[in-house]
Amino acid sequence: MAPSFHIRPATADDVDTILKLIIGLARYENEPESTVKATPALLRENIFEKHYAHTLLAFEGTPDAPGTPLGMALYFFNYSTWTGRPGLYLEDLFVVPEARNVGIGKAFFAELGKVAQAKNCARLDWSVLTWNEPSIAFYEKVLGAKRMDGWMGMRLDERGITELEKFSIGNE
């Protein structure tokens, strides 16, 4: 039996759908909607004009008769100095709660695998919140993903990035 959904690359016409899914992800991660700073204009500019990231979308129905949006996978490419090859980093994977456990997550990873192979990526990396046990179990048991023990995520926000100026040569 064919799945009742399909996956396709997002287009600039999909920015409102992408934003709604980002807000849905924020809700799922117990983050207030006010933490989402993305706007349709920023999504259009950074995904579809500057190509800093790419998005796959899942919809009910067929490509000829698409229905409700069911999820998204937003990714970008990085580079590994150790492998000398690009990698694919999955920034966000989200499937709406009512569409989980029907194969959409697996289908997203299948599509991401095709992209990674086409770009000769050595790795496909992503992060998962430590409390998200259902996703962790899926990644480990279904996909065979390995935890990156010994690694800790680090981040500078906009203020931290601005403060890096004080380390510029000549500003010491």
Q: Short description, anyone?
A:
With 172 residues, the protein is an alpha+beta fold. It has helices at residues 15-28, 40-49, 104-118, 133-142, 158-163, and strands at residues 5-9, 54-61, 66-80, 85-95, 123-126. The model has no long low-confidence stretch (mean pLDDT 94).
Explained architecture:
By secondary structure, this protein is an alpha+beta fold. Helix content is 32%, strand content 25%. It has 5 helices and 5 strands; from the N terminus they run E-H-H-E-E-E-H-E-H-H. The protein has a 5-stranded mixed sheet with strand order 1-2-3-4-5, with helices on both faces. Helix 3 links the parallel strand 4 (85-95) and strand 5. Helix 1 (15-28) crosses helix 2 (40-49). It is globular. The relative contact order is 0.13.
Low-pLDDT sequence parts:
none
Following the backbone from N to C, one meets helices and strands in this order, namely EHHEEEHEHH
Indicate the overall shape.
Answer: globular
- Number of helical stretches of at least 4 residues: 5
Mean pLDDT equals 94
Distance between the terminal alpha carbons, to the nearest Å? 66 Å
Strand-pairing-aware structural class: alpha+beta
The count of strands amounts to 5
Output the keywords.
single chain
